[in-house]
Design a protein that fits this description.
13 strands; globular; alpha/beta; 430 residues; 42% helix; signal; eleven-stranded mixed beta sheet; two-stranded antiparallel sheet; Bact_solute-bd_prot1; D-Maltodextrin-Binding Protein, domain 2
Length: 430
């Protein structure tokens, strides 16, 4: 299946509001000062097949390029942004680092820490990935990263637990979802797993309510127009607060992590302790790593975020993102060569298998065999538009304010108006 949908959020933006920095850029490769090169790689898989993918890719690249030594560092996903910001500020950057595009990447570009890859990536690789995906890593018309995975979101669920609760159809509307929640509770099943400790999974609920409440122009221009005056933003917050009153989430969701261990939100789904989780297309791979046999969950399936009545959003609109990799400004030439290597059809097929996700290289999508990803890919292909995750579109400072503000509201420490004020104040600070 070909995936050609554009993820829109005005991602080809001017790099403004950069991260404060000190020192000078100093990628460990130190440029091309000699025949031997050392390439440091920061990636976000710490266990299982995902971590093994990077070990295998590094070994294969080294074999094909004996003058290069690749050193891979695994960093927990929730720690990646903070460690990268510290690296930007100190000037001690890895040569290859994980990037998600949008204003988050634009901020690092503005700090002068990212290599311009325009004209340096294999044209065949670029063609296989497509301009739509590459646009998320484009700033002021220049390419600063290469996507590895396409990651639209929605609700992953256990077919077995739905059947146990007597749910025969996946929810199409919020009323349907609340009915399913009632049935799951009656069957003694936690309806929705939520890793509120990590903030962003809770904020995903606000993102999707915003996509349903707000028009396309507002949602897709956030990278350049961080304006929250339209009443739809408050409507989305009110809708989330109202939904939370149904008590749909697992007990202790505010202290539950998203992806670390059997008691994380992904772990609850993996071990049939919760029926659903709102996540992106990386979730099947995370869940697989947390099942008792560390294999894909056999009864895992997917349905889109339900429609919400009264909103300005287009039916079927989705939220999503891309995981990719960039080169630091002082990285050696083996950096872009490594990105070409892991973006090739062969290694993208291996990536799809290892991470149980959707590869960015269109020639490799045939390797996707996880059943829960098939309906997601179909919905993605039909969606009128797919907006970039709000925290990615907004950049780290405003995005973090949004994410933590949602958690505070769900914890009863704020209300919808307080949430909107917090986001507005963060946007005003730049």
């Amino acid at each position: 299946m070909k995936i050609r949908k554009v993820l829109t959020a005005a991602v080809a933006v001017a790099a403004v509001g950069a991260i404060a920095l000190t020192g000078c850029s100093g990628g460990s490769g130190g440029g091309d000062t000699g025949a031997k090169q050392t390439l440091t790689v920061w990636q976000n898989s710490t266990t299982g097949d995902g971590k093994q993918f990077w070990t295998d890719a590094a070994a294969a690249f080294q074999k094909a390029n004996p003058d290069v030594t690749v050193k891979v560092t695994s960093i927990q996903n929730e720690d990646m942004d903070g460690k990268l910001q510290t690296a930007v500020n100190s000037g001690d950057m890895p040569d290859v680092f994980m990037a998600r595009g949008g204003s988050k990447l634009a901020d690092v570009v503005a700090a002068g820490k990212v290599k311009d890859l325009t004209g340096k990536i294999d044209p065949d690789v670029k063609k296989a990935i497509g301009e739509a995906a590459l646009s998320a890593f484009t700033v002021d018309g220049k390419l600063y990263g290469v996507p590895m995975a396409v990651l639209p979101g929605g609700l992953f669920y256990s077919k077995d637990l739905f059947a146990k609760a007597g749910i025969t159809d996946t929810p199409k509307t919020m009323d349907d979802l609340e009915t399913a929640i009632t049935k799951l509770k009656a069957a003694g099943i936690a309806p929705i797993a939520l890793g509120g400790k990590d903030a962003w999974p809770a904020a995903h609920w606000y993102y999707f309510f915003a996509v349903r409440a707000c028009g396309k122009d507002l949602i897709t221009n956030l990278a350049t127009k961080k304006d929250f005056k339209d009443g739809c933003w408050l409507t989305a917050a009110n809708n989330l607060q109202k939904f939370a009153q149904v008590e749909p989430f697992n007990e202790g969701f505010l202290t539950t992590s998203a992806q670390q261990g059997a008691n994380s939100s992904a772990g609850l789904v993996a071990n049939h302790k919760a029926a659903m989780e709102l996540m992106g297309a990386w979730d099947p791979g995370v869940i697989a790593s947390l099942t008792p046999d560390q294999k894909p969950l056999a009864d895992l399936d997917w349905f889109p975020f339900p429609e919400v009545s009264g909103g300005k959003g287009e039916a079927g609109a989705m939220m999503g993102g891309l995981d990719g990799y960039s080169c630091s400004e002082k990285s050696p030439s083996s950096c872009e060569k490594f990105l070409d290597f892991v973006s090739s059809k062969e290694w993208q097929e291996k990536y799809a298998q290892a991470f149980q996700t959707i590869p960015a290289n269109q020639d490799a999508t045939g390797a996707v065999d996880n059943a829960s990803l098939k309906p997601l890919m179909a919905a993605y292909a039909k969606a009128p538009y797919v907006a970039l995750w709000l925290d990615t579109a907004l950049g780290q400072n405003v995005g973090n304010a949004l994410n933590t503000g949602v958690v505070e509201m769900l914890a009863g420490q704020g209300d919808p108006k307080t949430l909107l004020q917090k986001i507005t104040d963060a946007a005003a600070r730049g």
